[in-house]
Specification:
single chain; alpha+beta; six-stranded antiparallel sheet; 25% helix
Length: 246
């Protein structure tokens, strides 16, 4: 009968041949492999064969929502407004509604409110007028009007007109406003102007559309690039809130 096997003695064996050492090594190897797989997956590949573009930086967004924004239109002349001359025409500047950035002959940075849209309508329509000079109307229309065929036509018409300074007292002045519709995205404002006249007062009201785009109010060019298409003449200001430089 063969003698029973002697108990295994691992004390004098090299450490890398002992079962405990082998089990530990296998466990470490598994952890390392798992780590490499996770790292590769998190990069979308090994760095050499990846074709995915790096994630784009998030664009700044307007954190306000339509529910947060005021929509009640003013029924009296807004407070905190001062008037400054742009050439021969006075334009409004509001301590709360803008513009906050005036650079050269352009003005931007209007509040996302009904008052901000009103100030923008007065500023942009005046600065886009031919009498303001090319250094005013060209950048204003190019940068602060919504792109489109009507805007391009308006620019083309103005560029074809020979520049000539307006005679003193020959320009209309802002006389009042009426909101035809308002939402946080779109404002339609009737801006009244007092035409130069002797005797009976004459007014013309421009129906101006503005849209909130890229963090500011932008003007929509009139159809066909012609301001006459949105102009109405009247001899009174019925339904209009009187507003203007005094």
């Amino acid at each position: 009968m063969p003698a029973p096997s002697a108990p295994q003695d691992f004390a004098d064996r090299p450490p890398w041949t002992r079962p405990g050492f082998i089990a530990s090594a296998v466990l470490v190897l598994i952890v390392v492999i798992a780590g490499v797989v996770v790292a590769i997956a998190s990069r979308g590949g090994d760095g050499g064969g990846s074709t995915g573009a790096p994630p784009a930086s998030p664009a700044p967004v307007d954190s306000s929502t339509p529910q947060d924004l005021p929509t009640e239109v003013p029924t009296t002349a807004p407070a905190g407004v001062r008037w400054e001359l742009l050439g021969q025409v006075a334009v409004p500047i509001s301590s709360s509604a803008g513009p906050t950035r005036v650079s050269g002959a352009t003005a931007a940075g209007y509040a996302h409110t009904p008052e901000g849209a009103l100030i923008a309508a007065a500023q942009l329509s005046t600065r886009a007028g031919f009498s303001s000079g090319r250094d005013s109307w060209e950048p204003t229309i190019s940068q602060q009007f919504e792109p489109g065929a009507d805007r391009d036509r308006l620019l083309a018409v103005l560029r074809d007109v020979q520049d000539a300074p307006a005679q003193p007292g020959s320009l209309s002045e802002i006389a009042g406003f009426s909101y035809q519709s308002y939402s946080p995205d779109t404002a339609v404002i009737g801006l009244a102007f007092r035409a130069p006249s002797v005797g009976t007062a004459r007014y013309h009201i421009l129906s101006l559309t503005l849209r909130w785009r890229d963090g500011d109010w932008r003007m929509v060019a009139p159809p066909g690039g012609a301001w006459t298409s949105v102009n109405r003449q009247t001899t009174d200001l019925v339904g209009v809130v009187e507003w203007g430089a005094r």
